[in-house]
Description:
By secondary structure, this protein is of the alpha/beta class. The protein has 27 helices and 28 strands.
Amino acid sequence: MQNNRNFLFLVLCSFLVLLSRVDSVSEIHEANVAAQPTYASIHIGVILDLNSPMGTMADICLSKAHSDFYTEHSDYKTRLFLQTMNAEEEVEVAFAALELLKHKEVHGVLGPELSTEATFVAELGAKAHVPVISFTAKSESFSSKRNPYIIRTTPDDSHQAKALADIFQGFEWHEVVILYEDTEYGNQFLSKLNKALQEGDIRLAYMSAVSTSSKDSDILKELKKLKTFQTRVFLVHMNTSLGCRLFSLARNAEMMNEGFVWLITDSLSNFLYSVDLTCTDSMEGVLGIRPHVPRSNKLDTFKAWWKKKAVGLKPDMAMELNVYCLWAYDTVWSLGLAVEKILPMNSDLSNLSQSENGSNLSNLRVSPFGPKLLSELLDTKFEGLTGEFELVNRQLKPPAFEIFNVIGTGDRAVGYWIPGKGISQKLVATGESAYSTSVKNLKKIMWPGDTVVKPAGWAIPSTGKLKVGVPMKDSFTEFVNLQSDPLTNETKFSGFSIDIFLASLQLLPFKLDFDFIPYTGASGKYNGSYNDMLQKIVDKTYDFVVGDVTILANRSTYVDFTLPYTESGVIMVVRNKKSINMWIFLKPLRWDLWLTIFLACIFFGIVIIVLENQTLNSRTGPLQPHGQELGLFFWFPVAALAFPERNMVASKWSRFLMVVWLFVAYILMQSYTAKLSSIFTVDQLRFAFSKEYYVGYQHGSFVKDFLINDLRFNSSKMRNYSKIEEYHDAMTIGSKNGGIDAIFGEIPYMKLLVNRYGSEYSIVGPVYKTDGFGFAFPLGSPLVSYFSRAILNVTQGTNMTTIEEKNFGPGYPSGLDSINQESPSLTAYNFGGLFIIMGSATVFALFCSETSLGQRFTVTANSFGHWCCTFLYSNGKESRVQSLDHGDISTGDEMNAVELVRTGEVVEPQNGAADLPEEVHESNPPKNANSVTAAAPGELHQPQPRN
């Protein structure tokens, strides 16, 4: 009994001791709780698919961001409380959003992953005034333009589209084929890309939509179809699983060989090593683009942590770290910074919401805290894992994009695209540089086929030879001529256009296999419509067309043309009508020139009378018999042309003026002759065209529409012809007999007409501008630039004349001589300079002959001239005398002449003294019969007998 009491006592003591300890522990715990600070908790909802690799990665990154943020900012008085809900299907996402907004009292929502799911959540957030933040959505439907409570911490795809367009432009790839995932996001990205390509003058050759449920056989069939195109540049915009399947099948279809170009967008490049590590095995040489994440110590620490964390994940959940995880990390940091700026310490959040009961959307809780959080988020800036975090237009500020090259199982950055600066090898540009699309400074790229040579971006299809359409015609076969060989049943193609094409082929940097295919209508003959023939390029019946195809603006909307290889323009040709005029000999000179010549003759005659006045009474000659001197001198200018005798004048100044007059008269006569010849050989037709005239045009030519639409001709006054002979016959008979009055045609055709019939036709009126003949190709065809350069070399080369003479014959005019109006007669103004020279010479002669100053000047000039001649003559004779001393034999007369020169005596000739009266010469005969008379310096004469 006693023992039982002792046992109970011990138990009671033990209980009391234990109770005292519990009380002390409780007191310590209460003291510790009382010592801890009070935080304001803000609930943020998170909607993720935790059963997917992307959802698993995002959940880990969000938790890590929450932990790191408050470890670094432990002094903050606010705390984010992330409430994560798992949702796989769209319906589950909707219920999760309602649960978070109605019952969890969240003031912001992160996620979900897909844009279609995020759109519905954003509508709920707008009703509850709660910002919905997505770090994965890029769809245009999830846009702040439609909902002010939407925030995207991802950049807009328009910047990526601009970067891709610059890459195409830099590599000079003017055509691209796009293979994209057939989803809403794929279609929306395509619209942005198409806009950027148009701004860069890049043509979207083909768009291939591939469904995520497509079988491999369907994808392979589509790839084989693309292989038949000329374009060899392919852009892939797909998710990782579909993209990896595509490249594996492309390798099997031999489309990863040399000459092909493959590019990928960030929809594939961001997850390139996340799901299928063997995906890059079939992507050797692919060029990709992805947002650039600048390296930092913080990022390196996070990557090291992620590698350790990824080891513990399930194999099916393992994912390589990508930029979406980093954007999720920075999003949590932006929320933590924004919340801290809004709530004061010890704030009571119970009054920040107004909850209402009910399960429908009309009873959704409205948060007054949401707008404040939204406003503060838009102003938040900091340095995150992805670099500078800043929201512009409610989405992440566009980052630089990294251009990388897939090599082996990895990749290598070859350059960058920087917003506002373009393509650059280095990320940091020094100084203010202009926007650049040049790829010359990019690092060396390894292209498909293990080559470093940049692919051309196009190639001849592997299906066979190119189909070249050629018009079949029976008119103007000088340009295109098709002749069928009855023995071999083969068609031979010739003509000017064909020769230009064949010559251009020789200058191309590659070989082109082709077959000429005649264009025929339903009847088997050419139907006359060039527009219908060009439409065959659009429906891919022909790869391109060669012939005398005129380059027109309306045609350039559906085909591309090379540079023209002929002259351009439409002209009018009329038939010459020779006019018979008995006074046509007066037409070369205008009336004022005739009058000027007549007055010049009178003036010239008067001057001759004045100059000859001193010798008129003492001399008699054939031009002044029996006192008719005055009348004869009036006709002297004309007589001088008919009788250019030396003895017509006696004064040396008269002879000087006669030389000047003969010079003037010679020029006038030659000009008159040339002008009269032009009048007789070139038709001076004053063609006053009227729209009442009948005009001809070439059958099947666009000239008909041009005459009706542009020149407003009446179609009833127009008649079409096919051959040059038909034109000629119609012009010969005239419109009154069923013919025509004029022809409208293109310059190359009309030059053939004028060349064949010579001076019977003239080109009159203005030249109506067109762009000449060219070869037609599909829109955006890369062959256009190659053929244009080749055509320039052909038309400017030495073989062009040979080609023209071969097809058009010798004498084909290389230029166009357009005669628009009658050539004007020559006027007095045209010869004004000539008459000024004549007048100046006349005044000078009168001055020297009739004035004392002029006479002294004449005497001085004569003396100086005689002295110069004598000096030169004496030097010559001294040299001759020295040669005689060495054995030369000379006559006595020569010795006498030398002696006279040495003594300085000069005997003036009797007939050369025109300025002295004849009596003076007769009264002073030479004293010595052996004396020498000189008619001019240096000229010796025999002695003359006395009278």
